[in-house]
């Protein structure tokens, strides 16, 4: 019988062969760490994505198995240096600076001069990152971009960035993501333990970090923080494009099963971008986009530009409403997309309870949220409507594919740090629904899960 180490090695070698075969069939070279990144035509290929997932899962588990436990703990404990280092590289636009040197790279003295910082310090940080495969040290104290660091480059030139730093994140979603995490998110995380011990009247670790009672979104509205809000929007839009394809919401539920004229309420829907997808696809339904006044104000020109006939025919209505207050609308479907994860438990129960009071006996509630995967066998698998046993992680991988499938676990900790809120497992969604008068019927597992509830 093969050892766990051999099984992990076999998973890696088998799927490297599958990956290289797929690239060869497409007439493409497989990924190379030393090449600048550019989106591959195979980026959405199911075979390639699954092979890569298995390689990552097995390689990370193999490292964890053979590396000294003390070294693993030390590396994790010093993990804050990763965030600080990548944050420094983004703040001083090092990926953009290194474009000046091409493949030959730039010496740290040149890097410091172009970036407007101390070259020796930049060199220390670049060596730390290059040791972890971000940037390449091509010769002593000389660095260039590689496949990973190249995604930090911005659309604007280095000269444009330095002349007007306030606009540098326009179209630069990876850089915007890094800056968000390396600033307020990083500071908030350092207060998690203190907050859990004694909140001291603060709503979340974030509030402890910035010494302000406003939530993150209200804090972004302060004049001095509006650039952060704009940067956050770029980062989140980038995540949405990468992780959540437009057809996700269309495929999440059998919308054709609803009778003509049925009302679908997009609760906390912002300008209604998800409803736009649904309204164009399912012309027999009526929709109401519900959110606060500032969002509905922005929604009007958005719909006028993108689907004016839906407003003119009153198939789509825009309604000012706070989901923390009683729900005024009776609808066949109420759906909330990435709303619940932003709110503490008591507020989540309040939001869903308000909807439950308004709902009819045949109404449905759909929550579009991440599914936190267990690191062991999940007894709630039977509730996953589209579960495919063929995609189960092979032995001896963790059932959730470890680091290759566990990204919702870091999003969960991000929610804790910023909002004292959470992502949830399926069982935790069952409990949340139960507390607000809803019974979970089933889950459709996608990049963003669709939790479908009925009234209890």
Automatic annotation (TrEMBL):
Pfam families reported in the protein's UniProt record: Methyltransf_2
Listed InterPro entries: COMT-like, COMT_C, SAM-dependent_MTases_sf, WH-like_DNA-bd_sf, WH_DNA-bd_sf
Transferase keyword on record: yes
Keywords: Methyltransferase, S-adenosyl-L-methionine, Transferase
Residues in O-methyltransferase C-terminal domain copies: 252-438
SUPFAM superfamilies membership: S-adenosyl-L-methionine-dependent methyltransferases, Winged helix' DNA-binding domain
PANTHER family reported for this sequence: O-METHYLTRANSFERASE CICE, PUTATIVE (AFU_ORTHOLOGUE AFUA_4G14580)-RELATED
Name of the protein this chain belongs to: O-methyltransferase C-terminal domain-containing protein
